[in-house]
Amino acid sequence: MRFERQREEMVSRQIESRGIENPRVLEAMRRVPRHLFVSEALRDQAYGDYPLPIGEQQTISQPYIVAEMTAALDLTPDDRVLELGTGSGYQAAVLAEIAFRVYTIERIYALYARARKIFDQLHYHNIVTRYGDGTTGWPEEAPFDAIIVTAGAPQLPKPLLDQLAVGGRMVLPIGDRRTQDLVKVVREKEGFRQISLGGCRFVKLMGEYGWKY
């Protein structure tokens, strides 16, 4: 009950009050138990308006950023979504509450294994996980209706552009090692259109089509 109240306050004070109106996103964030995606020592802070460490020098994004990126994807219940950077698993769980299927890739095995365990415990049977380099995408499952990248990239990874369906949307941070611009990419018949969503700060996207070190 305590966490349910904190979750409702998180949605109303941190998300709705900042202009996120998509009802599917708001309802998803009311349902997903964010406190289960952080360590027990940090559960009292799980619904705060800030990121939290999850180990392996990685973080769980603040709730507003999760909501903003999810809303920008304009998801429908029939969509197939690719996520790069499973991390804690929280973002994938929010996506899974809305979309038909979520494919999520994590390069750090400890995080991959922990997230998979939580997905199974919470019965997220529509989340498919993979351990490996997410910057190459998941070509055998492409094309995707939406792609979300939860780490900062130096440029648009070409494999992801190739794996985005016509009419598909991709949201990712692009910039240097310290700060990035949150960008939405829409694939149209004649090419790709980019929309800036504002500044942000994420950990580095590591991989063949990301940062090398």
Portion in beta strands: 25-35%
Task: State the fourth-level CATH superfamily.
Answer: Vaccinia Virus protein VP39
**Shape type:** globular
Tell me the name of the CATH class.
Alpha Beta
- Name the structural class: alpha/beta
The stretches of 5 or more residues where confidence is low (pLDDT under 50) are none
Fraction of residues in helix: 25-40%
The Cα radius of gyration reads 16 Å
Order of strands in the sheet with most strands: 5-4-3-6-7-8-9
CATH topology: Rossmann fold
Mean pLDDT over the residues: 96
Comma- or semicolon-separated keywords:
single chain; 213 residues; alpha/beta; Rossmann fold; 9 strands; globular
How would you portray this structure in words?
The protein is of the alpha/beta class and 213 residues long. The protein has one domain (2-200): Vaccinia Virus protein VP39 (Rossmann fold, 3-Layer(aba) Sandwich). Helices cover 27% and strands 28% of the residues. The chain has helices at residues 2-15, 23-31, 63-72, 90-96, 109-121, 158-162; strands spanning 52-55, 58-60, 80-84, 101-106, 127-131, 144-149, 164-175, 180-188, 191-200. The strands form 2 sheets. The chain has a 7-stranded mixed β-sheet. A two-stranded antiparallel sheet has the order 1-2. Strand 4, helix 5 (109-121) and strand 5 (127-131) form a beta-alpha-beta unit. Helix 2 (23-31) packs across helix 3. It starts with a helix and ends in a 13-residue tail after the last strand. The model has no long low-confidence stretch (mean pLDDT 96).
